[in-house]
Design brief:
heterodimer; A: mainly beta; BH3618-like; 1 helix; B: alpha+beta; three-stranded antiparallel β-sheet; elongated
Amino acid sequence: MTSANVIEIEEAEVAETIPCCDIRLPAGLLGFEHMKDYLLIAKPGEAPFHWLQVRNNPALAFVVIEPVYFMPEYQPDIPQADVEFLGLTSPDDAAVYVIVTVNGPRRATANLKGPIVINRNTGLGKQVVIANAAQYSVQHPLPVNA
Amino acid sequence: MLVLTRKPGESIVIAGRIHVKVVRVEGDSVKIGIEAPSEVPVHRREVYEEIQRSNQQALTRQSAEPLKLPLAATARPKRKTAKSL
């Protein structure tokens, strides 16, 4: 590597995404059953938010977040049929993400009735309608600093 | 809409692989049993539509602009990095 070719790049110029994981949702998402393959991506400076990017159409994506970051007491009751479908053998196998709707600068809500549950080991996932959906909101406001 | 009349205990077969059975009728409620392959999701309609609407509103086009959502996190649990899900 020759020092003559080294260019200093300021952090702001680097629109790097950190591809993470291939996620397969065999049943798609509710209303988007045809969209089954995704990449779960983290972008610098946006933690703890991630993007669930549509593989076939990378311009389309959902903002997602693990609910533990704003509601540690969230206890989704995952139906047994979904537990089996996902091959979950223990709670540690499951990564839970909720879809975020961004309504404006610093205004967003999360869907707590239909989280995306992913088997950490296989990347197999499903948007689960939790058995205790009545307890939670489909538009739970996210606590955002002004 | 196809409308069929069934008595408790009787069933309907859809696409040769989804079975819908009238389990019991109690007052103005009907208990319905559904057998379907695991890749066929089955939901109560009103919850399905609510979540479908929410998904539609949430779907966004990625732009180069970063998200501006400084979360007032209530907890910062020690956890694995994004790379390991």
